[in-house]
Amino acid sequence: MKLSKNLTKNIETLKKDLSSFDVIFHDIKLKNKKGVLVFIDSITDKALISKTVLLPLSNQNISGVKGIKKALINAETEEITDYDLALDTISNGNALLIIDGLSTAFSLGVKRVEKRAITEPPTSVVLKGPREGFVEDITCNLSLIRRRLKTAKLQIENLSIGKQSKTTVCICYIKGIVKKGLPEKIKKRLKSFEIDAILDSSYITRLISDHAHSLFKQVGTTEKPDVLVAKILEGRLAIIVDGSPVALTLPYMLLEDFQSPEDYYTSVYKTNFARFIRITSVFLSLALPSFYVSAQLFHLQLIPLPFLLTIVNSIKGIPLSPSLEMFFTLLIFEILNEASLRMPKYVGMVVSIVGGLVLGETAVNAGIISAPALMIIALSGICLYTVPDLLQTFSLLRFLFLVVAGTLGGYGLILGLCALLIYMVSFETFETPLLAPFSPLVKKDLKDSVYKETLFGLNKRPITIGSKNKTRLKIKEKVNEKRTNR
Amino acid sequence: MTSLKTRIIIIIVSFCFLLFFSNDFGIIDIEKTAIITAIGIDKKEDEYEITAQIALPEAKNTSAKNEKSVISSTGSTVSSAITKIGSISGWYPKLSFCNLILINQSFLDENIINLVNYFTKTLNVQDSTLIAITEDSAKEVLKTESPLDDLSSFAIQKILLKKTGLNNDILETDIKTFSIGYYGKSGYSYLPYIKTLPPEGEESGNEKGGNELSKQNASSGSEGQSQSGKEKQNLFDATTTLLFNKGKVVEKLNKEETFAVNLMTTTVNYSTLEVNDCVYQGEHFNVLLDVLSVNKKISLKFVDNKPFVTFKLDVFVKIDDQNSINTDLNGQGNSFVPEEVCKKAEEDLKSNLKRVVEKSKSGVDVFDLIKKLYRHHYKYYEEYKESILKTATYDYQITFHGQQKEI
Amino acid sequence: MKKELTVRQVCLFFIAFMPVTKLILMPSVLSGFSEQDLWISALLTGLLDLLTIFAILKLYKKHNLSFFDLLKVHFGKTVKNIVLILYFFYFLIKGFPLLIEQKNYVNLTLYETAPTILAFLPFFFVVLLICITKVRTIGRLSDLFFLITVFSLLLVFILSLGSLDFGAILPIGAFIKKVPIASYYSLGWFGDGVYLLFFLGSFELGKKGIGKIVISYLISLTLVILFLIAFYLAFDSIAHRTLFAITDISKYSTVINNVGRVDYISVFGLLLVGTISISMPVFFETQILMEVFPFKKRIYPAIIATTLNLLLISLLNDYSVVLQNIIHTYFGGLFFMFSNLIPILLLLLRRKNDKPKN
Predict the structure, then answer these.
(1) Which chains touch C (3+ CB pairs under 8 A)?
(2) B250 CB-near residues (< 8 Å, 6+ apart)
(3) How many domains does chain A have?
(4) In chain B, which residues have their Cβ closer than 8 Å to the Cβ of C117?
């Protein structure tokens, strides 16, 4: 529908569609014409309206579309003839200037956004390296990226998704570096559905994923602009959603979650040791409870005799079977974990103390659970926090493995692991294997996997991602003869 | 098709959960298991009497002290008797932790492999389980209280395992070594012979002399030291070794001979050697030597198609203690070893070795000569496999080295 | 079009999956015949496989066709289907003793106090999962699992080092007359070259492809032979009485006295790899069913092949050991024909440029 030349008609229709109390219809008197400025009080900057719209219009003799446009000193002035677009403009927080006798209205960028300060994201705290984190405001997030990538090749494509929310979703990548065909594929997918609202980037994750029921992540996430930029520079594509501090990166590989931002800011020795610790911890976290149960139920011979006697000592009088004891201890751990996340911080502390110390100690003393079981669950729980991005998936897998161990024993665990590996090696997102560069083996990409090379060693972009431009570090001039590590 | 896959997965997961929560599908878990640490085999009329020593940990106490329970049962075969232990005790007899098998000497007139074979065949017993013959009934030995450990089987293991102690006068054997020997080319194997030593104050009766200088090892020394206020506790002696040919006892080695074999065939660490009646500057005295290191070699050569065996042994020693009043000897410190002492030690060791060689001629391949013949002189194997022990010429090149010069 | 496998994956397939099936019962059986010369028997059979692999690779270079297309082009669809069905039964017979061996090993060494059926039944679920997957997944699993095989075997070697009697392997050649008999018995465990026949068409051979694959097979054969030697050095005269070599060989290490059965890390590692390895005959049975019958989805032939194997194992459970013996004693000729002879004879086929006959 087009806007009418008749101001009254336009205003009547708008009043019908925008019947909220915070919608302001402000009358303006020009030289020989009437006009109305329509905006939503709660999301517009009234000072900006006065400065860039009302003041210029009141001081000059203005007529005609060109004259009005010339008079307005707002940087985001746009002519609008479509009624629906006019409605969207107002809903977005802009002001709409409608002049009697003109079928063209003016959209004026006077949006006011409430935003929180840029802080360090709580999920990826670093000792060394940038501490900035994304916020909910997309313009702010884009500015954080732009500040780090001052190149004209940085492409930011804007999409509006959500029938009701009209959420701004931006696709960022560097032309010539991004995996060939990926932006088009993502845009196609993003346009392929119609949804009411996008309230967080996780909605996009679900919508563009290949496998809806998968237990594993299919899209990488980060709250840190430095990490996002590093990933874009590797040939990935980023999706930033207005209202969400979590940016998405594609394609995703499991290995990413083991790479901490700090790995690239500290010495390689420390990094390699930390990665070894992370991988071992995740494995231990998954294997410890299940192995302990299967050894107790099926394979006593695997436990050294002195340790076995200690176990037998501690489990005497425990009313539950080894598997159920471990299951319920793990369940209590998960409950405490969930509760401490949801509760206010000061109560959370209390929950940790009550849960960790009082409950555990009392349960052991009362003979409900044994001390080794408690210790194993505690260790397993802590281990998983070394790679927080895998927390959701692996805490579920831990339960699954525990059930398998309690039912089928050690061979069951092997079969379970085998099934999991078969699933994982055949799993792909956007034609990128989940377990790359280990399976399929990409030798050159192993330089930043379990083992991390020095910066000079990482001179090529990962092959798995499939960037067109392969080199990211070139030695222009040999200035240090002693340097050997290339 | 996804739905079919999903259905299959749901059925499997549900089944797992059902088993998991019911936890009652015939498994025998840790609480229904008797952890057997040792097995004793005795003869009771025509049947086997099996005694199992079971570790019973104290509830709510993770200290090192463990109680034991000794249960016996009889059966026409070893396996049936072991199974009966399960029905008597109500626990499943778990043999994986059985580290010791004691066989009463009453079985020595039979082929001992008949007993060992059960343990080699079953996968539930580790091949590394130690075996020994007992003078007293195996049941009594397992019931014995020992100051070395709460469990007598652990005490015996401490004595038998060379890795853990200073026991160079004991030849340890496990199921695997015994079987390899039995089924090997020579059919030779050996087992230590365990005697229970009476508590202090009672008649000793063992063949051990009362040499005051002797740095007594765990097997035979400090009897009943920690007995005060406790019930009587015994120690064990395993320095006698029984030599078997095709599973039958042929010869017996005493402590000194066992030590000589150990020195010649195994790695000896932290050992001591008694040399009695040494003469230095006209004075007779006894010396205890510390063995620092040993270079040894048993070589088999054929000279003019005749087997020739050389025992070459270089022992590096220092004096640990001596009862001489000679000031030269006392003033030199322990590193000085007079040549006379070395010569006496060489003579003693040589005579011990010679005795062992004489005993080996009755068919026990103590020094693996038949094995050497087969592996390195295969062309002579058929000709000499039966006679090599008797027909070989033996040469002994034994030298003790110590600091000879006086400072 | 991008092929499902790379030459590297084919190479790693041999290193990862070829040795594991030969480490459980085969050492004991071979030492029963040729005692300390058991490794020579294995070497002979291994070299026969190597020759087969070389022939298959030459065949691929000559025709550049998959095995199915090769049969179709030269003999027509009917003959192709008959040959494939014969191969289906061959895989069924080849897989049976391997499954039984794994089942007995798992039950006897890991499940002393648990119901037998419980331990092995879920294995077939994983077999089904493997059969549903594509050749590409097998390639990727090879990339991952070769590390497990190599690590596990290294751990076994290191742990067993202290208890080896290095002279036990002497004199070499004392049982040379019995070596061919032992080799004949080992045919059931070997014959891995035939897998390559079914991988034809799934990978691009490239310039040095033949050399790389042959070398990789030699590496895996070396691992097997080293294990056989270590096994005999550890058990000497009781080697033929030691049924499950892999569990026993490294348990005498002093490390085990201190920290428990760390050697089970390698046992579990090899069991993990072994799960894929002994599923391979069932995987190829599925491939054959898919090729011969007009199934639209892979899950149907996968279910048929898995169920057939499960039924065989369940119904013949009571006679399994006897059957296992019969297969190794009397079916050596069959194994030789299907694993070695047919692939080598295929090399005689002349090159045709025609497309497959319909």
Answers:
(1) A, B
(2) B243, B244, B362, B363, B364
(3) 3
(4) none
Facing residue for A304 by CB, picked from C137, C140, C260:
C260
Asked if the Cβ–Cβ distance from C137 to A425 is below 8 Å, we say yes
Closest CA to B243 of B387, B357, B99: B357
Residuewise pLDDT in 10s, chain B (407 residues): 456 667 777 887 787 777 777 765 556 667 777 888 888 998 888 888 888 888 866 544 444 455 567 888 888 888 888 888 878 777 777 888 888 899 988 888 888 888 888 887 776 777 788 899 988 888 888 887 777 676 777 777 777 765 544 567 788 888 888 999 999 988 899 999 988 887 665 544 444 433 333 333 434 433 333 444 445 577 788 888 999 998 888 888 888 888 888 888 887 767 778 888 887 777 777 888 888 888 889 999 998 889 999 999 898 888 877 776 666 666 556 567 888 888 888 988 899 999 999 999 888 998 999 999 999 999 999 988 888 888 899 999 988 888 655 54
Neighbours of B174 (CB within 10 A): 20
Q: Per-residue DSSP letters for B336-386?
A: B--HHHHHHHHHHHHHHHHHHHHHHTTT--TT-HHHHHHHH-HHHHHHHTT
Per the CB < 8 A criterion, the answer to whether C17 and C276 are in contact is yes
Residue B335, burial from CB neighbour count under 10 angstroms (0-12, 13-18, 19+): exposed
Out of B21, B55, B96, closest to residue A301 by CB: B96
| Helix, coil or strand: residue C187 | coil
Chain A residues closer than 8 Å to C246 by CB: none
Between residues 250 and 309 of chain B, which touch chain C (CB distance below 8 Å)? none
- Clarify whether residues A373 and A407 are in a common domain: yes
**Domain range spanning residue A319?**
275-429
Chosen for mutation from A296, A299, A301, A312 (greatest number of chain B CBs closer than 10 Å) is A312
Sign of CA dihedral C72, C74, C79, C84: negative
Q: Left (φ > 0), alpha (ψ -120 to 50) or beta: where does C236 sit?
A: left
Cβ proximity of A427 and A445 under 8 Å: no
A365: which 2 tokens?
């003393």
What is the predicted ipTM? 0.93
Q: Is B62 close to A310, i.e. CB distance below 8 A?
A: yes
Q: What is the pTM of this model?
A: 0.86
Q: What is the mean pLDDT of residues A62-68?
A: 73
Cβ contacts of B373 within 8 Å, gap of 6 or more? B300, B307, B380, B381, B384, B385, B388
By the CB < 8 Å criterion, does B183 face chain C?
yes
- Residue found by looking up tokens 């007594």 in the block: B216
Which one of C114, C248, C257 has the shortest CB-CB distance to B27? C114
Domain ranges of chain C: 7-348
**Protein fold of C7-348:** Amino acid/polyamine transporter I (1.20.1740)
Burial of A226 (0-12, 13-18, 19+ CB in 10 A): buried
| Mutation choice for A interface testing from B18, B22, B23 by most A CBs within 10 A | B23
Residue with tokens 């065996």: B309
What residue spans define the domains of chain B? 30-202+216-253, 254-407
C-alpha torsion angle, residues A87, A88, A93, A96 (rounded to 10): -40
Class of domain B254-407: alpha beta
